[in-house]
Each structure stands twice: as structure tokens, then as C-alpha cells.
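Hi P.,

Sorry for the delay on this. The queue was packed all week, but I finally got your sequence through. Input first:
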Amino acid sequence: MEIETVLRLGSFGLVFALISLIEALKPLKKGFLAAPRWWNNLGLTLLNSLVLRFSLGALAYQSAVWTQSQGWGLLNQVNWPVTFELLLALLAFDLLIYFQHVLFHALPLFWRLHRVHHADPGFDASTGLRFHPLEILLSLVYKAFCVLALGPSPGAVLAFEILLNASSIFNHGNFRLPRMLEKTLRLAIITPDLHRIHHSQIPAETNSNYGFCLSLWDHLGGTYTAQAQKPQNEITFGLSQHSGPEQDQLPAMLLLPFKKGN
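Then the structure:
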């Protein structure tokens, strides 16, 4: 468990530092880094870390350890090569997270939690960490049930947790990839340009590009949007009915799910 925590937090810190450095050196939009909302997003991240540390933080990993010892789950019923099982587990988890994301937009109760993430008027690496503690806990329970059903190895769960965190930080990056690299990568993964569309205030764009890592699921699910109506550096972020500097304060973020409106 100590190794799991060190690997997960260490990779998170490394990716966040790298993306933040790129944003500082060559931002798509200036003024996000070190703005008050940036520090409040990090404050929410710290709070979430403390909540997880003293509650369900390693639930998915512990579930994988238990299913492996008990022989539960689909993957524990077959004897496939380890590498193939790992790739299959990562693919399945990415699809399940896509479904989770769609549900958090479609179901009003879940959207109340998820709108804390979408209320951010900016878009950078810190946005990829801005989630309400209740959404984090709900997501952990969802992933634990997925682990019980799928039966992946603890290593596969750890690998996916690292990949999920890295993808969330990367695809919220306030930078643009070189044109040819962007064109190539978006064939397989969600790039910052694609996910930036998802944070637009235009409903048709918000309800698209749900993927966290692979863009495959948006293509198959009919939720893929290649281009925003506005140029990338002119997209308006946030929620119009929950705007204003006061909305970016930590107390306001925590209370947002309990306020009326969409």
C-alpha cells in the first residue's frame, strides 16, 4: 500500500509540474497561472487528498487485492497472458470512466456535483484537479464496483489510476500542441484542444468529448466534436449562471452542489 501511494502521488506531482511548466512558458491564454482561482483549485485538491487519505483513498486498489485473492471477477476466470490482461483492463476502465462522465452530465443529481468542475472560468492543469469531494468519493465507489466485476490485478488498477490522473492534467492543459502532432494524437487520445471544447459554455459542445484518455469512445458513442464554434483561444469557459470571482473561492466550490440552477 505504501508503494502504491508513493507511485500514484509521485507520478501525479511529476505530471502536474511538467504541464504547469509548459503552461508558464507558452500558454494558450495568459493570466490563468497563479490567478486566485488557480490557488483555490489547488486548495480544493489538497482538501480532497486529505478526505481520501482518511476515508476511501485506496478503495479500488484494495478491491483488486481482494478480488485476486478470492478469484472474483471476469479476468480471474481466464488464464490469458499478463500483458494482454493489463491492456484489456486499461481499455475496459477507460470505457467505464467514459460512461461515468456521460452519467455525471445526464443525471441532475450527479451534475450538481460535477458542475464544480465545469464552473471554472479558466482552463489549465489545475482545472483537471477541481472536483467536489463528494464526486471524488462517488467515483471511487463506482470504480470499486467495476473492479469487483472485472477482476483486474492490483497492478492494472494502479496503472490505470496513474494514467487517469495524468490524462486529466494533460488534457486540461493551457497550451496547444504543434498542428501535425495534434492532428495525429487526436486520432487516438483526448488532447487539450478536444477537451477544451468540452468546457465551452455552448451546451452542444459541453455535451461532447467526454473521454479522458482515448477518443475512441466519443467516436463510437456519437459524442465527438472535432472543432469548436469559436477559435480555441476564444472559447468561453465556466457556467454562466455560476460566474464571478466569488464562485472560485473554496467555500463557494464546496457549497455549489447545494445551490439551485444548472
